[in-house]
Amino acid sequence: MPRFTIGSSLKMYFGHRRQVEWTRRVAEIASAHPAVRDGVVEPFVIPTFPSIPAVLDLAAPAGLLVGAQDVHWEDAGAFTGEVSAAELAELGVGLVEIGHAERRAMFGETDSSAARKVHASLRHGLVPVLCIGEEERGEHASAVEACLRQLEACLAVARHEGTGGTIIVAYEPVWAIGQPEPAPDVHIRAVTRALRAHLSGDGLLHHARVIYGGSAGPGLLTRIAPDVDGMFLGRFAHDPAAFGAILDEAWKIGVGDDSRAL
Fold this sequence. Notes:
Number of helices: 11
Shape: globular
Number of strands: 8
Largest sheet: 8 strands, parallel
Low-confidence stretches: 258-262
Distance between the termini: 6 Å
């Protein structure tokens, strides 16, 4: 397995043309970068729904996985405006972002609906990028408790149905999203370390990774690397050069990291 999983959700920041151009430039960087070529980093991009086919054409040859920003829990039916996991899999999508704090705040997403979406994604061989995080800034222990409770609530349907697969848990403390700086390093490491320990050896999941998001950008990975499996980037990766800088960081860490071979 790659040492790091690193990618970006483009949210609704860009129009179609800019998403395609961003992907083209990141694909050029990734395809030439030793971190990707040598398997230290598994990169990904999550565009808007209309741009998925064009982004797939550019991303796949460069080794970038492509995700979707949401999914419905049913495979088909009268669900106007929704997209199923079955259709995403048919297109060649590999990841699905689920439960982001913005969807919870703006569109009523809950742990219950996220759990159904996680289950649907796993049923169709997609990797959920499950976003969890405490709302209020506080002590490490309370953050860990809140995140573990949220994680298990979002896995409840998959556990009940015995549906396994691979999952990426994106730890994104709500209070850090959109801020000038990420959460403090010691806080990130405490929570991600606990999440990784909780998921280690999980009987349901074939493989689980814990990445950090929430105002993540260049310079952070070096400080938190011992306790994370990657980063989930937002606006700080809008410049493709910043994505390249983070690949540089990952490569420097990975060169001397025996975990590359695990």
